Structure formats: structure tokens, C-alpha cells
Amino acid sequence: MIRCIIIEDEPYAIEILEYYISQIRQLHLMKTFSNAIDALSYIENEAVDLIFTDIEMPLLSGLDLLKTLKLKPKVVIVTAYRDYAAESFELEVIDYLVKPVSFPRFIKAVNKAHSMSEGFFQQPELISMPLKIENPVADNNIWIKVDKKIVRISVEDIVYIESLKDYIRICAGKNNLVTHQSLNGILERLSADKFVRIHKSFIVALHKIDLIEGNIVIIKDRTIPIGRQYRQELFSHINL
């Protein structure tokens, strides 16, 4: 069993990491910290095998924490910034994950931590894909970060989701919310029998589709293209 902790000040990021950890039976989450100061004291007094930490946090950054530690556990950086990768690897971190982090990418980091440790397991990997995981949507709602707010969205209200490079726009009823997330990342949080990716830039709610005509989907007054590589997947969802 790998004993791990999370150091993260964003509620949404904590939620995702806690869920991912819960899906890997060989990981045991000991504690979650919203700042590195509290985590420092805990690490010095407890047997921690693996740390998942953000970088930019109040008072003490994740990198400053690593520089402070005398006995350093294995560390995986989880951050929204790519700029610290070189410095992080100089501090001998196991892996560097850029948000939003997909579950397969998280598994890869955990397997890397396992392979660089001694005495945990005999098997070569903790876990491998494909892996069936439960739907992470609780009470038919999801939480997303919009600016400095954490907003709750009813899954039933979502009409479609559009990619905006490093961000996505979620059209839910009268609301159009923009958040730092990827289409793959948000799709993992939605029910596979209710939502489908139909284009490299679009996910749609199947129950909101009014009409499919040629290579387009019509939802109310919005016309959304169907990508060639996603066409068969769409039709399989509607049993055609």
C-alpha cells in the first residue's frame, strides 16, 4: 500500500485527485492539505510514501516545500503551469502533470512512482488501462471553477460543451460558463450514455438533440458539426 497525501488549494482539483486516488486500490490517501505549511509538519512526523502537490500556493510554494524537506518522499507535481517543469525535475520529482489531468495520465504517474520504489509490490504495475471506473458525477451535479468561484451545474441542464483551446464553454440552459478544462477531462466526469463527443471541439447531450441532418446536429437554434471520425460513435449511441 502506498501512503499518499494531497497538497492543493483548489477545491475542484482536490475533488478530482481524491476521486482518482479512490479508484486505485493500492493507494491510501492519508490526508489532504490546502497549504504547504500544514503539510510540512505532517510529512516530518508521519510515514508518507508519495506526495501529490500543486506549485503555486499561499505562503509556501510546492517547490519551496520540496527544498525544505530533509527526508523527501516520492513527489508528483500537479499544476496548471508548464513553466516549472525543469526546476521540478532538478528536485527529482517523479512526474509533472499539467491540469486538467486525465485519469490515464494519472495512472501513468502512479505506475512510475511504483516502479521507482522498493518493497511495495511484486507486480510490475499498479494498474493498467482499460479500467472501468464509476461515474464521478455526484447527485447529478458537477462543480467547475469559473474565475475565482466554484459553480455547481446540473448535468440535466447541459446542452453542449465547446472547446476553446485550453478552456471549455459549457452551455447549460441560460448559462454559458467558461472554465480551464479540456473536453476529454470534462467528458470523463459525465455519463457515457448521456453525452457524446461528436467533433474535436464539441460534446453534446444526447437528450437535447432535436435533429441530425447530414453532418450536423441541431439543438434548438444551434447548429453543431459532426466530425468524420466521431460520426460512427454518435450513431452507435442512438442505435443506428
Automatic annotation (TrEMBL):
InterPro entries: CheY-like_superfamily (IPR011006), LytR-like (IPR046947), LytTR_DNA-bd_dom (IPR007492), Sig_transdc_resp-reg_receiver (IPR001789). The modification 4-aspartylphosphate is found at residue 54. Residues 3-114 form the Response regulatory domain. PROSITE patterns: HTH_LYTTR, RESPONSE_REGULATORY. Gene3D superfamilies: 3.40.50.2300, LytTr DNA-binding domain (2.40.50.1020). This is Response regulator transcription factor. It comes from the Bacteria. SMART domains: LytTR, REC. Keywords: Phosphoprotein. PANTHER family: STAGE 0 SPORULATION PROTEIN A HOMOLOG, TRANSCRIPTIONAL REGULATOR-RELATED. One of its GO terms (molecular function) is DNA binding. It holds the Pfam family Response_reg. Transmembrane segments: none annotated. Residues 142-240 form the HTH LytTR-type domain.
